[in-house]
Here is the input.
Amino acid sequence: MAFGSSSHPPSVAVLFDLDGVLIDSEPLYTQATQAVVGRFGKVFDWSVKSEIIGRSSLEGAVYTIEALALPLSPEEYLAERGVHLDRLFDNVPLMPGAAELVQRLDDLGVPIAVATSSARRLFLQKTAPHAFFSRFDAVVCGDDPRVRALKPAPDIFLVAAGELGVAPEQCLVIEDSLAGVAAARAAGARVVAVPDPHVDAKRYTQADRVLANLGQLDLAEFGLSAARAT
Here is the structure.
């Protein structure tokens, strides 16, 4: 499914979101959150999650507390959820096609970076079992002091592009969230969305293309061919 504008120069680098794009951690966030809200007889479903996915932990906490009328402060909510996440994050599975796509881009010589709202500590914990993350040329996390505002602000993609030594307009961003797509577009990058099946793909009107999985990505469509990368 194609959206967005086609009047854009070919991409020379790729910026990946982490959760829901490279690693299948979103179900773990849901599980941990449900463990917290379930104590109060509440259900954390996609009517709530779809509004916070891709945003900062604090923004998500505030929204969830208000939406579900939880008798917790954001700090209490995040601390309790964090206990569950620390246990779950020790063995996060990969998203289908993630390792293969990263390897293909690396073999082609395409600069690649991770741009995630997760804190560095959580990034390291979630990715520790997966050696292919060593292939990335750069990793920019949400607690990087250069990132003054998280998605949907463009900061994290601007910093990641700078780390690769390319202009944001030369980057292809791969995202799963609406906030991430908005951030990529604000940075001036092209963006491919790979949304969770629970989210209506028609909402991703800012994406250049919406895919069901990473295996559907056509590198040549965005100028990321072997000829350009060598």
